[in-house]
Amino acid sequence: MDDVDKLENYIPSCEVADIIGRDVRTVQKLTKDGTLTCEKKKNKNLYNLYTVVREYCDYVAKLGKKKISSVEEEKALEEVRIKRAKAELAELEMQEL
Fold first, then answer.
1. Hey, which of 10, 31, 40, 55 would disulfide with 46, CB 3.0 to 4.6 Å?
2. Each residue of 16-65: pLDDT tens digit?
3. Alpha carbon distance 35, 29 (integer Å)
């Protein structure tokens, strides 16, 4: 397989940015962080289309899980606050009686 066949499904970072709806700097940052993988050809990053989409989807899924867990934590804290308030109210009502 020659280099042309090997790079058939490879795209530059500007196209990756268009596909995922982010800017080129974000693509570069994700690459630097190791989230996205690329091949270097003549000082340019080239991304395998299928691989980069899968990697970005995994990245977004992980972000979603983090948000869900923080929402769950927030919900639990709010439930504790409500229960404490109800307990205080019940105690005040008992003292009043």
1. 10
2. 999 999 999 999 999 999 999 999 988 899 999 999 999 999 998 888 77
3. 9
For the entire predicted model, the pTM comes to: 0.61
Tokens of 55: 């990697």
CB distance 36 to 52 below 8 Å: yes
Q: Side chain identity at 23, as an amino acid letter? A: D
The secondary structure of 11-76 as a DSSP string is: EEHHHHHHHHT--HHHHHHHHHHTSS--EEETTEEEEEHHHHHHHHHHHHHHHHHHHHHHHHHHHH
Domain chopping of the chain, boundaries: 3-96
Residue among 8, 9, 6, 3 nearest 49 (CA):
9
CATH code: domain 3-96 is 1.10.10.10
Element (H, E) at 10: strand 10-12
Q: Select the more confidently predicted residue: 59 or 5.
A: 59
Token pair recorded at residue 50: 């299928």
